[in-house]
């Protein structure tokens, strides 16, 4: 079934439901604000682009999603591929690749390809998730340590070489701000998990930078003031040769958006006994990734952490996601200038914690206890993700995983992938 969940939930909608959805939407917006800014910066773009992505993409996904509680926006999984595309083809190239990915997702949704996620082996998902987390953490070392590097290479080994070459510019103050923000996030999550932890931690760190005149970069010092409104849509320059050149990146973006959104919907279903529609979910991702880049936005998908926050905060219909997008728009229109005061080491801390959560260290012992072939598949996917290319990692990982599944299926039962 391809009908959006919004159409179903509106039949018996009520004021009590709206109050719960509105509170949940505002809560998620407070979580999303610093995250979207940090993800955009790490992707080689600007803070404003991250907020635009959350507003436009989040609104479209909530309105058309196959899940009642899905929250859309930019996510850490895209940082690797987006940074590489911007480095090689510029922001205009990313826009073209994302629109192509949206078309691919729309076609996949039309042909009901959402159920194919069960064919992706869990070791492959875990391997490239840990690999992406490793790359995200490495990408934050420049701001976390206050290094003056300039343009950081996209590939891991040249990136580490460039960071090491700039070690003389290390700033103990920047490291202190980063460490204090990480500690605040982790402690507040344990002490007051229902509070907007990211906003509080980043806000306090940024206030300390201003109050004590600490010599660290801020959003305003590096990127200037944020615009106070949404940009007008524009169509990028397209040619046949450019489409061919960007096609591998488009498939990677489409794969990541499809897998992450479907995993997010599965996680949400388990939290409140829901039932998402995979085909409608892929169509929603397709629509969002066609329209959002026309406003200069990044690739967008269902965000697992924000969706889980929405469910825990009481959101039960797509109205919560719509409120989340409108709340971020309100902040951009009314208080966008405040974002210029955010300290970049504090935002780096947000992504370092995000990378830690993605890597799920509490599950590493389970990974090490896997059968040898599955552990090797996980390790290979991880290494290819970090040191080769995400497209290669996904292609080889899935191909080997399906081959192993076929081989094991001849004798013993194959493993069950996450969400299968």
Describe the fold and architecture.
The chain is globular. It folds into two domains: 322 residues, no CATH class; 44 residues. By secondary structure, it is mostly helical. The longest helix has 33 residues. It contains 18 helices and two strands. It has a two-stranded antiparallel sheet with strand order 1-2. Keywords: Membrane, Transmembrane, Transmembrane helix.
Summarize the structure.
The chain crosses the membrane at residues 21-42, 48-64, 93-111, 123-142, 162-188, 195-214, 246-268, 322-355, 375-404. This protein is mainly alpha-helical and 420 residues long. The protein is 68% helix and 1% strand.
Helix and strand layout, with pairings?
Blueprint lengths: L4 H5 L5 H28 L4 H18 L7 E2 L5 H32 L11 H18 L1 H5 L10 H10 L6 H20 L5 H15 L7 H5 L16 H33 L5 H14 L9 E2 L1 H9 L6 H17 L8 H16 L4 H5 L3 H16 L2 H20 L11
Antiparallel strand pairs: 1-2
């Amino acid at each position: 079934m391809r009908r959006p969940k919004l159409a179903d939930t509106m039949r018996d909608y009520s004021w009590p439901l709206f109050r719960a959805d509105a509170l949940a939407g505002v809560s998620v917006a407070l979580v999303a604000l610093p995250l979207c800014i940090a993800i955009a910066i790490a992707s080689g773009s600007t803070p404003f682009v991250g907020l635009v992505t959350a507003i436009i993409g989040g609104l479209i996904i909530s309105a058309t999603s196959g899940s009642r509680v899905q929250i859309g926006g930019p996510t850490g999984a895209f940082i690797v591929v987006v940074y590489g595309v911007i480095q090689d083809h510029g922001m205009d190239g990313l826009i073209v690749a994302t629109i192509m990915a949206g078309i691919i997702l729309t076609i996949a949704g039309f042909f009901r390809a959402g159920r194919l996620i069960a064919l992706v082996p869990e070791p492959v998902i875990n391997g490239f998730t840990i690999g992406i987390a490793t790359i995200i953490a490495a990408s934050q070392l420049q701001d976390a340590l206050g290094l003056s590097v300039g343009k950081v290479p996209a590939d891991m080994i040249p990136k580490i070489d460039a960071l090491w070459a700039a070690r003389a510019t290390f700033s103990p103050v920047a490291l202190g701000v980063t460490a204090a923000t990480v500690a605040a996030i982790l402690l507040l999550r344990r002490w007051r998990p229902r509070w907007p932890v990211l906003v509080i931690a980043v806000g306090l760190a940024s206030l300390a930078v201003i109050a004590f005149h600490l010599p660290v970069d801020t959003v305003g010092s590096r990127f200037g003031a944020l615009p106070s409104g949404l940009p007008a849509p524009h169509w990028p320059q397209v040619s046949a040769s450019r489409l061919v050149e960007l096609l591998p990146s488009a498939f990677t973006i489409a794969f990541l958006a499809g897998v992450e959104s479907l995993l997010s919907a599965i996680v949400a279903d388990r939290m409140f006994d829901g039932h998402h529609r995979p085909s409608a979910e892929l169509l929603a991702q397709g629509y969002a990734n066609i329209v959002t880049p026309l406003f200069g936005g990044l690739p967008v998908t269902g965000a697992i952490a924000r969706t889980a926050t929405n469910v825990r905060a009481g959101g039960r219909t797509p109205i919560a996601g719509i409120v989340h997008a409108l709340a971020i728009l309100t902040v951009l229109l009314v208080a966008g200038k405040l974002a210029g005061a955010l300290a970049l080491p504090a935002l780096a801390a947000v992504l370092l914690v995000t990378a830690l959560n993605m890597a799920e260290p509490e599950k590493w012992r389970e990974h090490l206890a896997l059968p040898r072939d599955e552990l090797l598949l996980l390790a290979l996917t991880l290494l290819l993700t970090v040191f080769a290319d995400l497209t290669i990692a996904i292609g080889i990982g899935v191909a080997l995983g399906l081959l192993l599944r076929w081989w094991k299926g001849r004798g013993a039962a194959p493993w069950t992938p996450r969400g299968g």
